TrEMBL record:
Pfam families: COX1 (PF00115). PANTHER family: CYTOCHROME C OXIDASE SUBUNIT 1, CYTOCHROME C OXIDASE SUBUNIT 1 HOMOLOG, BACTEROID. This is cytochrome-c oxidase. It is an enzyme of class 7 (translocase). Keywords: Cell membrane, Copper, Electron transport, Heme, Iron, Membrane, Metal-binding, Respiratory chain, Translocase, Transmembrane, Transmembrane helix, Transport. It catalyses: 4 Fe(II)-[cytochrome c] + O2 + 8 H(+)(in) = 4 Fe(III)-[cytochrome c] + 2 H2O + 4 H(+)(out). Its EC number is 7.1.1.9. Belongs to the heme-copper respiratory oxidase family. Its main location: membrane. Residues 523-543 are annotated as: Disordered. It comes from Henriciella marina. The chain crosses the membrane at residues 30-47, 68-93, 113-135, 147-170, 182-204, 216-240, 260-281, 293-310, 330-350, 362-378, 398-421, 441-468, 488-512. Residues 533-543 have a biased composition (Low complexity).
């Protein structure tokens, strides 16, 4: 079934390549066709080695796919963070890192490459891997759909490659966090619908009566992202052979739709999905139940109801009607309550196991991620207040806020989950090196502090300089003077990003050695095997 489906798209790709209206569309069509052919060859080689073995044995968990997801997450994290350091250098030393003859290296093309790589490539693969792992363990059922979960995984990688190569070639619809053009959006829609069906199908055939709360968070993430993606990317292509399209919405309607999408991409991709990770991996790692299951249910319903209304706070002092701006601001302030309720629930899950903060750096990393979640979900509502927004908007303060949540919350909870998955799936008594996890933790934490503090200073200074007037009523500072004043902050930001990247490289090395079964000599005494769920592939009682 999957192979027949791919053959249809291979035919479409070669037809579009032969009738492409522009060179870039032809390149992408051939890239898509080549990927599909390689995919089909891979399926054929895999099927030829099966013999009498049933690859979709319902008594076994589909853990190989999760292992692939862990590997993809590691790869894309390094790629995305490396590009982030490069563009930080471009902003800091533009005379050294600007190459006029190499247009694809310009900041305008590398910046969306960075954001998409860390959010959708790294974050998306973490969510795919963890959701496929958690839903199987909490339902005591193998993933629904046979080969289709693999279609979702490889289809998602193909979307990432299409998006990334498109940015470098200049293919973009110029919408923040939604830059890929119409054909990539359509492919992602197909992949995402398959993802939703697989997740729902697994829940439907569950052998455990109760649906654990983490699955509710995953499901809200999958459903809402599908809705946001479809509505925000409604467009009309110039032709089927053209990479260019025109948006259905225009003017203030387009702006409102974009930031309804943009803020809820943060809310449902980078928040609810990773809260699902928190609600499974922290309790399993510390071998304690969720502090308050009732609070987790309240957290879920209040968060998903309130978050969806907060987007207009991105459009203060614009043509958007003020009642809509106020609505977004009001719901943003209301988000304080469910966000902090979830943070407290996660932290208090360590009740009776606080010693693990000292003995297990993976637990420490996940708990610190909750601290950053609490800080960023306090700062976000604060910045949505119109008076504060008049100072903070369009400045580096917003960049600092985003990276407090992205590096501290999303990054750390993801790293913690990857450490857990690698140890559990490969059935290791412990990670290859606990000391390397310590190095990762401290390098990344110091890097985050460097990053966000430098951007706070730069942003507040920038905002104050923009609104300074002289005695004659003219602006006190020119724009270039505000840029020059941020130079030291830019250097510190770059150093922070480099430290964070170094930590991720250490993690990748540690995970590879763990997967290979290597054991470190003279492992510290605190590196005793942590409590872990049964790692065997056979179906177990709900974990």
């Amino acid at each position: 079934m999957v192979s027949a489906f791919l053959c249809v798209f291979a035919v479409l790709a070669i037809l579009i390549a032969g009738n492409a209206a522009d060179h870039l569309m032809g390149v992408h069509a051939l890239l898509f066709f080549s990927a599909i052919i390689a995919w089909l060859v891979g399926i054929a080689l895999w099927a030829g080695k099966l013999g009498d073995r049933d690859p979709f044995d319902e008594t076994q968990y589909e853990d190989t796919l999760v292992k692939f997801g862990v590997a993809a997450s590691m790869f894309w994290s390094l790629a995305g963070l490396l590009v982030g350091v490069i563009i930080a250098c471009q902003l800091t030393w533009p005379n050294l890192f600007y190459f006029e003859e190499l247009g694809w290296t310009n900041f305008g093309r590398l910046r969306p490459l960075h954001t998409s790589a860390v959010i959708f490539a790294f974050g998306g693969n973490v969510l795919l891997a963890t959701s496929f792992h958690v839903v199987q363990r909490t339902t005591r059922a193998r993933l629904f759909g046979g080969m289709w979960p693999w279609f979702v995984f490889w289809g998602y990688q193909l979307f990432i490659v299409l998006a990334a190569t498109g940015y470098l070639m200049g293919i973009t619809q110029s919408k923040e966090y939604a830059e890929p053009e119409w054909y990539a959006d359509l492919w992602l829609t197909i992949v995402w619908v398959a993802y939703l069906i697989i997740f729902l199908g697994t829940l439907w055939k569950r052998k455990e009566p109760h649906i654990y709360v983490a699955n509710w968070f995953y499901l809200s993430f999958i459903v809402t992202i599908a809705m946001l993606h479809i509505v925000n990317n409604l467009s009309l292509p110039v032709s089927l052979g053209s990479a260019k399209s025109y948006q259905l919405f225009a003017g203030v309607q387009d702006a409102l739709t974009q930031w309804w999408y943009g803020h809820n991409a943060v809310g449902f991709f980078l928040t609810t999905g990773f809260l699902a990770i928190m609600y499974y991996y922290i309790p399993k790692r510390v071998d304690r139940p969720v502090y308050s299951y009732r609070l987790s249910i309240v957290h879920f319903w209040s968060l998903i109801f309130i978050y969806i209304w907060a987007g207009p706070h991105h459009l203060h002092y614009t043509a958007l009607p003020q009642w809509a701006q106020t609505l977004g601001m009001t719901f943003s302030i209301m988000l304080w309550m469910p966000s902090w309720g979830g943070m407290i629930n996660g932290v208090m899950t360590l009740s009776g196991a606080w010693d693990k903060l000292r003995t297990d750096p993976v637990v420490r990393m996940m708990v610190v991620s909750l601290a950053f979640y609490g800080m960023s979900t306090f700062e976000g509502p604060l910045m949505s207040v119109r008076a504060v927004n008049s100072l903070s908007h369009y400045t580096e303060w917003g960049i600092g806020h985003v990276h407090s949540g992205a590096l501290g919350w999303v990054g750390f909870i993801s790293f913690g989950a990857l450490y857990c998955l690698t140890q559990w799936l490969y059935k290791r008594k412990s990670l290859y090196s606990v000391a390397l996890v310590e190095w990762h933790f401290w390098l990344a934490t110091i890097g985050i502090v460097f990053y966000i503090v430098s951007m706070w200073f730069a942003g507040i200074m920038e905002g104050l300089m923009w609104r300074a007037y002289n005695d004659f009523g003219f602006l006190e500072y020119s724009f270039v003077e505000t840029v020059e004043a941020k130079h030291i902050s830019y250097i510190i930001r770059m150093v922070g990003g480099l430290l964070y990247l170094s930590g991720a490289m250490i993690m990748s090395y540690n995970l590879i050695r763990t997967a290979m079964g290597h054991e470190r000599i003279n492992q510290p005494a605190d590196a005793n095997p942590v409590s872990q769920p049964p790692a065997a592939a056979e179906l177990q009682p709900a974990e």
